Amino acid sequence: MSPKHATPTATDAPAAAPGAVTAVDPRLLVREQGFKGYVTEFKRKIRSGELGSIPVVLGVIIIWAIFQSLDSSFLGAENLSKLSINLVGTGLIAVGIVFVLLLGEIDLSVGSVSGLAAAIFAVQAVNEGMNEILAALLALLTGAVIGALHGFFFAKIGVPAFVVTLAGLLAWNGLMLQVLGSKGTINLDADGFVGNLTRYFFSDVAAAYGLAIAVIAVYFLSAYRDSSRRKAAGIPSRPTSELIFRTAAIAVLTLVPAYVLNQYKGLPLALVIFLVVLVVADFVLRRTSYGRKVFAVGGGTEAASRAGINVVAIRISVYTIAGTMAAFGGLLLASKIAAANQSAGAGDLLMNAIAAAVIGGTSLFGGRGNVWSALLGMLVIGSIASGMAILGIASSVQYMITGAVLLAAVVIDSVSRRTQKSAGRA
Length: 426
What we know:
single chain; mainly alpha; ABC transporter involved in vitamin B12 uptake, BtuC; 15 helices
């Protein structure tokens, strides 16, 4: 091929005309402008309806302030330690719900799946004498298979997710009752593998402080490395002052809870498990191609399909994750009471799991949210329940307040989406 007909490349692009101004996305300059740039960006997000986690964080602060003013033991070490354990079981289920909501779908079966997983573990570990670790893995595998089955009927056959998971809610609850048998309750070994998931504490003060310091160090080093790479590539990066400020904020958010937990029994194993799951799930959603595909499918299945994404596979995988997390949460809930019984997975469990994800900031309309919503939402729900219990207020009031908070979260989400559409950002 002669030079005359050679295919042009990026290096063949003509130089900019003298005096021309290169267009730059203003959002890329935020980092270089320091705190002033972030203040401007924050104002822009508020005006355009991008509220993020601001409403729920303010909600937690208000709830804690109210209950602390009514009873000084609310923010005591013992109550906060118990709160951190109580939110884990439902919180793990809520993590799976976040994945489903990112698709703009729902899973009504997670409560029943969690109860079935606990029943299978109890029968195998207690009645059949199976090794507890193997029994726990079997329970998790059961949840994964059930989730994949739901995803198959939804994504491949075309049955609405609401119908599929509603059928699952009934069917798996019935199977759980069948597995438990006539007695209806199987007590677990409180000192066994699963029993220790919610009963074991790292009593050495070095454990909580060590974990906090490790989190601070990892954050600082990763942020510093990212900033250095951006500077080397000539890309706007965070100023050193902001990096120090963010690290100091992380230090407060980790060292203060570590100090409080050490005033009681130490660092709960259940909390460590929950945080590890959140970090891994957050990495998967934000740092992997799979996570980007989940958001893409939630943003629009047709566009995602045209982009070459296997929508069916993503949907099945998400429901598999939801089923696995439901089973995991079921094991933690069984550990808390050291038993698997007929009421497992019933009551307000499903409501709280879905409410936690939504209250925490994950949109019901799909395509927006993160797994930390499960933690924030459970902090709201768990704090309300804990405060009500301390004050001796009836559970009926708790349900009404939680319902009102859930409605407020959905209203905020709807208004936020409408504002973003008006601003041309949705």
